[in-house]
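Comment on both lines for my students:
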Amino acid sequence: MAIIYSYPVTAASMSDVMVVSDVSAPGKPTKSISVSGIKEVIDVVDSLNSLTGDLNITGGNNITVTPSGQNIEISTSAIDGSGTLNKIPKWSDSDTLTDSIITEDSSATGITIAGSLSITGSANYIYVPKILDENGEFGSANQVLSAGSSGGALSWVNKSSAGGSTGSVQFKNSSGAFTGDSNLIFSSDGLGGTLTVGEAGGDKGIVILEAEDGVGSGILKIGHQNVSNYVILGLGDGTMDKDYGIQFPVTGPGSNNKILESDNNGNLSWISTPTGNSLIAGSGIKIGSGTIQTENLANGGIIYSGDDNELAVDVGASAITGTLPVTRGGTGLNASTATLHNTLIGNGDSFVQSGTVNSAMQLPAGNTANRPVASEGAVGLIRYNTQTANFEVCKQTTSSSEEYSWYTIDVTVIPS
């Protein structure tokens, strides 16, 4: 038969107290105990990572949680792969890890990249406080990194100093190094800059403008501030037969209305600008094979020469000289004066002065010195022979002959 005692055997506070059996104490089948002390009696965990109450343990991606007896097994069976000591791993696919090209050194103070490094993103830069070259050196002030060969390792070398004087344009010399020279100077003068070729007071510089890709000619473009167009100097189409130069005059025009004129050697000189219908010539104007020259006579006359003939006209009308052949409407004579009352008698390709015509209009008397000879050109010509006191006409001797002679003309005088 069981006996149940419903009251505590020992005194206790009624706060946070419950009654439990106590079979180990004879005569005291019950005892009192605080509720908060039960966890110590039964060895219960009251929290897990500060969490209390009912807790659930779950796994994330590629994590499996499996209760087994009094144990909870957590496994990552979905991830596989392998790696090498000090290698930084990478994902080769969605669930496999493998080695990357990045290796951390054993002292964990640096990394080695077995390949190229590409930097992307909005910043797009890399900060490197020091660079160690192939010789294990960090370099010194003003040194630069240089590759020993194409694609070779980098090493620190001294930076080359700029050659030439202040403003010298740098160029590659015959030794393959960059240098400068006082013959090629650039200066910033506030006008877009000035490039000087040749030394001041020394040798003259040469600028060669080659044709692009061997087509056309090299050109010189001259621009102007606030203007998008250019003045372009170049050569026209066609083939050049030789080099030629154009030499500008060493003095300025000196006055308004002057233009440049070239001689056969390309030497330019200042001449007055032609106005209206007039043309002011310098050393002469060439027309075909002839040449007209002005201002070469005392009175500013004009000389025309061509085909070995010449005509000179003095604007003062004091003299007209030269030879104009009969075939061109002239006399063929080159004489500045003529004898008083002389007449011109044709003599083949020219005329001669022969005889006189006095105030009575007498015909010239023939004589052995100046009378025309019988010839084909004199056929039909009438002369007065003072030796025979007869008029004579020149005729062909016979119709079949090539001989000519003078024949007497019978004259009958009829009184008025």
In short: The two ends are 221 Å apart (CA to CA). Residues 247-273 form one domain. The helical segments are 38-42.
